[in-house]
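thought: fold this chain, then report.
action: predict
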Amino acid sequence: GYQGNRDGQRSGGYQGNRDGQRSGGYQGGRDGQRGGRDGRGGLNIPKPSFDSPVVQKPQNNKQNKNNYKNDKYSKIDHEEEMHSKGRGGKNVKSAVQPPQKKEAKVEEIKTITIPEVITIKELADKMKLQPSVIVKKLFLQGKVVTINQEVDYEQAEEIAMEFDVLCEKEVKVDVIEELLKEEEEDEKDMVTRPPVVCVMGHVDHGKTSLLDAIRQTNVTAKEAGGITQHIGAYMVEINGQKITFLDTPGHEAFTAMRMRGAKSTDIAILVVAADDGVMPQTIEAINHAKAAGVEIIVAINKIDKPSANIEKVKQELIEYELVPEDWGGSTIFVPVSAHTKEGIKELLEMILLTAEVKELKANPNRNARGLVIEAELDKGKGPVATVLVQKGTLHVGDPIAAGACYGRVRAMMDDKGRRVKEAGPSTPVEILGLNDVPNAGEVFVQPENEKEARSFAETFISESKNKLIEDTKMKLSLDDLFSQIKAGNVKELPLIVKADVQGSVEAVKQSLMKLSNEEVVVKVIHGGVGAINESDVSLAAASNAIIIGFNVRPDATAKSIAEREKVDVRLYRVIYQAIEDVEAAMKGMLDPIYEEQVIGHAVVRQTFKASGVGTIAGSYVLDGKFQRGCKARITRDGEQIFDGPLASLKRFKDDVKEVASGYECGLVFEKFNDLQEDDMIEAYAMVEVPR
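observation:
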């Protein structure tokens, strides 16, 4: 009938024609145009069939457009991608590429070198792409990134592969290490050099007195007055052979220096008191010496004491693989007494013997290099550094660079305070002429000329800066993690450390950092040599830090600024005191611990109901007192039925602060009304417990 006819008509007649028209004519054009407007070519958008409900049309389109979009992305090469920005529906043709062009593309595979971590932007620059292209590509894979986001090497490699770019890992060159690199020495230029010895051991076991004893036995009378302390090193002569002693300060805090001390030495003398045995720092010293690969000679001191027990000390040291020779081991043990000078000569002979076995050699005829042992700012002389020449010979007038400092050797003093013209291997000297105070433990070199010395120092400075920036980058991410774990409530104790010599700065820094615990982080934001000046104080004021001065004082301006800005400046002579004080300060910063303290008991005599208030317990205070704002526990027949704050405390109609024993009062509890006569009420307060 009509229906059928209409159907027929549809396929053939006008309707059919319209369909045709749509694909070809105006309508078709519009479709194409519409595609253009959406920014996708109307390429394979299906013609909607009229039997299907019209609603589907947009859905279909969307899906197909998306399919097409993905299709398009996989087809187009990334070079094409860059031009594709302004592409509308007009030149849709370029999406379908002639195949031979694609073949030619694959040939040129680029290779880039990238570091461990790289930002998307840097990666794009290296691949010569717009960063947005990478962002877009990752976005389509469901990864949302920003151009400043860092990706690690593996991720970067994956991204690059998508664009047919290969990656290589960048080999990191440590510029500072390159600067300090050494060429191999020729064996025939080498000459025997004196051994460098450091004295280690537990505090109070007699390191200093042993050193004094050694110096006294080998110092002729006329020189006795000329010894200058604080050069931190001296030479001793025995049987015509020299030994250099490094006197790095004791105490575990000087670990930093001692570690450097141990690295710079050939032999470590471990001083153990015969009456005291092995102590924590003794063990620490052993570990440092072992880590540095230094030969250990054990000096058992204080053998003149009645309580001395040499065998016990030997027994204890076996545990640390120091087995005496008379027990079949290889470690030399020398019983000495700094007090009576007994055994000192034997000790020195043993040092020479050990040195002979080790065949210590160095080439004196070359540019000098060695270590800075100690450095300070002298009021009259400027920066003074004690250096230990390890190779070559240092002369007055030589250019020199140590870390970030450079200069020319203006004058040299030996350990006896005499002016000297040159210093060979294993010789400690004090030098003047650097432009700044170098760090203790820094390597010093002698460049060809002053210009080179300067560029060495500048490279060192810029490299250290970069290193610092990298470290802070690393630290920041760690800290973020930490603060997220702690939800931002980690407390910091920022400190500024100033000391008279660089070695002490390092030491104080190290031992203060060790004090950090889970709740408080000790941060040394600045450490330096010399008096406390106004820049230190302003830094402290800005970062809310405490200044710790070690053997130094603040100058007048610094003092007044500190008073004005309320900056806490603490001055110490002994390292232990500084540590103890900081520890105490940290305990104050820790969250206080609260403890319950029972303050009174009462019994309920009668209950009243009051509208808007709830139940009021008319009570009689049996002992102690009830205070406003205290907490209370209510027990009935020995069972606790409520524990919580007291809402109000009244006598008759008035609110009162406290009610003493023997008086009656009205009590109201927060959110609790189930009170009965004869309930017992215990009042308690939370009291802070000092740590």
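thought: worth noting. The chain has six domains: 2-86, 109-169, 194-359, 369-461, 490-579, 593-689.
final: tokens above.
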